[in-house]
Amino acid sequence: MLTHLDSQGRAHMVDVTDKAVTFREAVAEARVRMLPATLKMIVDGAHPKGDVFAVARIAGIQAAKKTSDLIPLCHPLMLTGVKVELRADGVDAVHILARCKLSGQTGVEMEALTAASVAALTIYDMCKAVDRGMTIENIRLLEKLGGKSGHFKADQA
């Protein structure tokens, strides 16, 4: 059942008033594929715009906090933890891992996915002058804990 639709099929925000406050956590990932020279520039700290990973990390954290402003019908959440990790993945990619936590009445999957997505977009934005052919790939939910639907863990890709 799609909970964002009422009995007449109209979109509405789900009422979570009666749901119990429980611990919830979600982990999402994204990958930015690029030229090896672009990744080397990032890893070596030689990018003229500064520390690409630091800026992307901050962008991802800020995005998680603003998810309800970006995604219609998302509840504004009081996140208690957001962590965005970035690392070189082989010679031509950056792997992004975003983790969001809270004790609340609804899950944080959208916040984790938004954090990973915006961190990837930030890398693209900072590096587009040297590598317009970058691709953002495999944005997906890896794991979700808490809530009525319980534990979800994605298959390894």
Could you characterize what this model shows?
- With 157 residues, the protein is α+β, with helices and mostly antiparallel strands.
- Helices cover 29% and strands 29% of the residues.
- It contains four helices and five strands, in the order βαααββαββ.
- It has a five-stranded antiparallel beta sheet with strand order 2-3-1-4-5.
- Strand 2 and strand 3 (93-104) form a beta hairpin.
- Helix 2 runs antiparallel to helix 4.
- 33% of the residues are buried.
- The model has no long low-confidence stretch (mean pLDDT 91).
Describe the structure concisely for a colleague.
With 157 residues, the protein is α+β, with helices and mostly antiparallel strands. 29% of the residues lie in helices and 29% in strands. It has a single domain (36-145), classed as 2-Layer Sandwich (Alpha-Beta Plaits).
Task: Map the helices and strands.
Blueprint: E1 22-33, H1 36-43, H2 52-65, H3 67-70, E2 81-88, E3 93-104, H4 109-127, E4 135-145, E5 152-153
Antiparallel strand pairs: 1-3, 1-4, 2-3, 4-5
Helix pairs in contact: 2-4
Share of β-strand residues? 25-35%
Please, how many helices? 4
Overall mean pLDDT score? 91
Radius of gyration: 17 Å
Q: Find the count of extended strands (DSSP E, 2+ residues).
A: 5
Per the CATH scheme, the topology name is Alpha-Beta Plaits
CATH homologous group name: Molybdopterin cofactor biosynthesis C (MoaC) domain
Helix- and strand-based class? alpha+beta
Q: What sequence of helices (H) and strands (E) makes up the elements? A: EHHHEEHEE
In which order are the strands of the major sheet placed?
A: 2-3-1-4-5
How would you characterize the largest beta sheet? 5 strands, antiparallel
Provide the number of structural domains.
1
Please write the CATH class name. Answer: Alpha Beta
Helix content range: 25-40%
Q: Which CATH architecture is right?
A: 2-Layer Sandwich
State the end-to-end distance.
Answer: 28 Å
Give the uncertain stretches in residue-range form: none
Gross geometry: elongated
